[in-house]
Design brief:
The complex is a heterodimer of chains A (about 500) and B (about 120).
Chain A lengths: L1 E10 L2 E12 L4 E5 L4 H4 L1 H11 L8 E7 L11 H12 L10 E3 L2 E2 L5 E2 L4 H10 L3 E3 L5 H4 L8 E2 L4 H9 L28 H13 L3 E4 L6 H6 L1 H4 L5 H13 L14 E2 L7 H5 L9 H4 L4 E5 L6 H5 L2 H6 L1 E6 L2 E6 L3 E6 L18 H8 L4 H5 L3 E4 L5 H4 L8 H21 L13 H7 L4 H13 L4 H18 L6 H9 L3 H9 L1
Parallel strand pairs in A: 3-4, 5-8, 8-9, 10-15, 10-16, 11-12, 12-15
Antiparallel strand pairs in A: 1-2, 2-4, 6-7, 13-14
Helix pairs in contact in A: 2-3, 7-18, 7-21, 15-23, 18-21, 19-21, 20-22, 21-22
Chain B lengths: L2 H23 L3 E9 L2 E9 L2 E9 L3 H6 L3 H17 L7 E9 L6 E7 L2
The chains are: A alpha/beta (about 500), B alpha+beta (about 120).
Keywords (chain B): Membrane, Transmembrane, Transmembrane helix
Pfam families (chain B): UPF0102 (PF02021)
Family (chain B): Belongs to the UPF0102 family.
């Protein structure tokens, strides 16, 4: 008359074990669910009753109490239907209680007894594996759950009857096979871009060092085109990273067919995005765009058009690599180690700083437009370049010989060098130069004598701030890595100094 | 009472008698009939083994019409009356409580709906 089934509740990407306890006792017939269920969980009563009716079982006319423990943790989502149904069936004697003991159960029930897909099967599977349990999940989520561990038992039934027959031994459910997303062949190629060699070089540097990247230029100069080609020159995800990315996508219900991919995420939210959409918030926390772009690229086109408050909310994720959402009854952290790629026009009309252009509103136009982006945010962007308008002469040129594949190889080589270096220094968490900071940076990016002299001069004449100084060193280190050089030399420093965001300042003066 | 209402009342009593015999034929023992409490009324209380059934009998022109005549408000009254009944009959405390409905219509066999509510 008593049964317990294990399921999970999600806290960020962590899965916490939840015990579904079902007791059937004599008394006034009733079906109550306690343990802080939200609306979707409380409504699962009707779905459980409908699904049991559909397979020819009726709820016993007794007092059925379902408790979701721990009682103080809010339970959200629709994946509690299946564990509740199995708990009721076990305590009513329709299935043996020990059959479901070794499993963690998730699934939403339809009224006809079929099991509908849920979000978060992968984190649940990883959580279940940590509890030394198997997993029962909907059929469509099987391939994604199978990634968690190769030896854990996973049952992915299509409906309640299949599961029942499996427990009775009438039918065997096979373990689902982990499935990879087809390699995306249609990724836009860097070779499509004619001219813009400087910008392409900067894109390569940004990709190699994982630096945040800002492009300033008039409309139609190819900023968005460049940004869209960023994923094609980034190295594919390592297996561990793949799992991290897929966990977040799984929680957002974004894994099509349960297949996980090796391509780095590329998220381009529209500039009308709210803070909740970008960092993820709300009474029921969901990963936002920043978390969904984890280990990939977050592309913000028309940067100043974003709500300034929303942009400033990005500062913490960019700094710490995770988004922490604190609410009255939640405190949730999503990993969000993103590479920010932003594009903007120098002023509202878009042409400030172009030779021969005179803005009727004067320099105030560009000033006002650029003031929408806060200094602290700009400070965090290592690479800031100017993308001039393309001339017709560039467009008649033949397709450039160098495509994404060649650039990707150079980027991959530079990244391997960085990872190896930081591992040697005992910093396994630092994967790219962009994450290096302070003392470590000064140690690994120490320039040679000539470089140092140039840097000292530049610091004087360009009035480099402390942060600007570090930014220059960081970019110079990446440039040296691209060259395969052990030490940072004069040319690297010189090139790094050119990526310092002169574009914005010059536009202001010229407009 | 008008003639029509008297006839309906008699037909109702007849239906309840019919339902009581239906339960006896199915092996139940009738514990109470036409039980009235301050919170509601119950047409039949019957028991078989550990099952304690509170029965609502409905008679209309057709059995479908009778089924719709069991309103949510009436169900609540029956549930409350059942709690009242159990409170005054402690011998039945451990029983599995069920609420049945018997739908009757003229010249038709009664339809027995087990566990009609509230689960």
């Amino acid at each position: 008359m008593f049964a317990r089934v294990t399921t999970v509740a999600f806290e960020g990407i962590e899965a916490r074990a939840v015990d579904v306890q079902v007791q059937i006792s004599s008394g006034m017939p009733a079906f109550t669910i306690v343990g802080l269920p939200d609306k979707a969980v409380a409504e699962s009563r009707e779905r459980v009753r409908g699904a049991l009716n559909a397979i020819g079982l009726a709820l016993p006319p007794k007092r059925i109490t379902v408790n979701l423990a721990p009682a103080d943790l809010p339970k959200e989502g629709s994946h509690y239907d299946l564990p509740i149904a199995l708990g009721v069936m076990a305590s009513a004697g329709a299935i043996a209680p020990d059959a479901i003991e070794g499993y963690c159960v998730l699934g939403e029930l339809a009224l006809d007894g079929s099991i509908a897909t849920i979000a978060g099967a992968l984190p649940a599977a990883i959580g279940a594996n940590a509890m030394d349990k198997g997993l029962i999940c909907p059929e469509a989520c099987g391939p994604e759950a199978a990634w968690a561990a190769s030896d854990m038992p996973i049952l992915a039934p299509g409906d309640l009857l299949q599961l029942l027959n499996h427990f009775k031994g009438l039918q065997t459910l096979r373990r689902p096979e982990p499935d990879l997303e087809a390699e995306d062949e249609a990724m836009p190629d860097l070779g499509d871009i004619k001219g813009q060699e400087t910008a392409k070089r900067a894109l390569e540097v940004a990709a190699a060092g994982g630096h945040h990247f800002l492009m300033v230029g008039p409309p139609g100069s190819g900023k968005s085109m460049l940004a869209k080609r960023m994923p094609s020159i980034l190295p594919p995800l390592a297996p561990a990273e793949m799992l991290e990315v897929s966990m977040i996508r799984s929680l957002a219900g974004d894994l099509a067919g349960g297949r996980i991919g090796r391509n780095r995420p590329f998220r381009a939210p529209h500039h009308s995005a709210s803070m909740a959409a970008l960092v993820g918030a709300g009474t029921r926390p969901r990963p936002g765009e920043v978390a969904l772009a984890h280990l990939g690229v977050l592309f913000l086109d028309e940067l100043p058009e974003f709500n300034p408050q929303v942009l400033d909310a990005l500062r913490q994720p960019l700094e710490s690599g995770e988004t922490v959402i604190a609410r009255a009854n939640h405190r949730i952290a999503y990993p969000s180690r993103v590479q920010l790629v932003a594009a903007m026009n120098p002023c509202r009309c878009g042409h400030a700083g172009e030779p021969g252009h005179v803005c009727r509103q004067g320099p105030a136009c560009a000033d006002r437009y650029q003031a929408r982006i806060s200094g602290p945010l700009l400070d965090r962007i290592d690479l800031q370049i100017e993308v001039p308008a393309v001339s017709a002469a560039d467009l008649v040129l033949p397709r450039s010989a160098e495509g994404s594949a060649e650039v990707r190889d150079r980027v991959a080589a530079a990244r391997t060098r960085q990872t190896a270096r930081y591992q040697r220094l005992g910093l396994p968490l630092v994967r790219t130069n962009a994450q290096a900071d302070g003392a470590v940076l000064e140690e690994v990016a120490a320039p040679d004598a000539q470089g140092l002299a140039l840097l000292r001069d530049a610091a004087g004449t360009l009035s480099l701030s402390a942060r600007g100084y570090h930014r220059t060193l960081r970019v110079a280190r990446t440039l040296a890595d691209l060259d395969g050089a052990e030490t940072v030399s004069r040319i690297h420093i010189a090139e790094a100094l050119s990526y310092r965001g002169e574009a914005l300042r010059r536009a202001k003066v010229a407009a | 009472m008008s003639r029509a209402r008297v006839r309906a009342y008699r037909a109702g009593i007849m239906a309840e008698t019919l339902a009581a015999w239906l339960y006896r034929l199915k092996g139940y023992r009738i514990v109470a009939r036409r039980y009235r409490s301050p919170v509601g009324e119950i047409d039949l209380v019957a028991t078989k083994g550990q099952r304690l059934a509170f029965v609502e009998v409905k008679r209309r022109k057709t059995r479908d019409e009778a089924a719709f005549a069991v309103t949510a408000k009436q169900k609540r009254r029956i549930v409350r009356a059942a709690q009242y009944w159990i409170a005054s009959h402690p011998a039945f405390v451990g029983y599995a409580i069920a609420f049945d409905v018997v739908l009757c219509a003229p010249w038709a066999l009664p339809r027995h709906v087990e566990n009609a509510f509230p689960t």
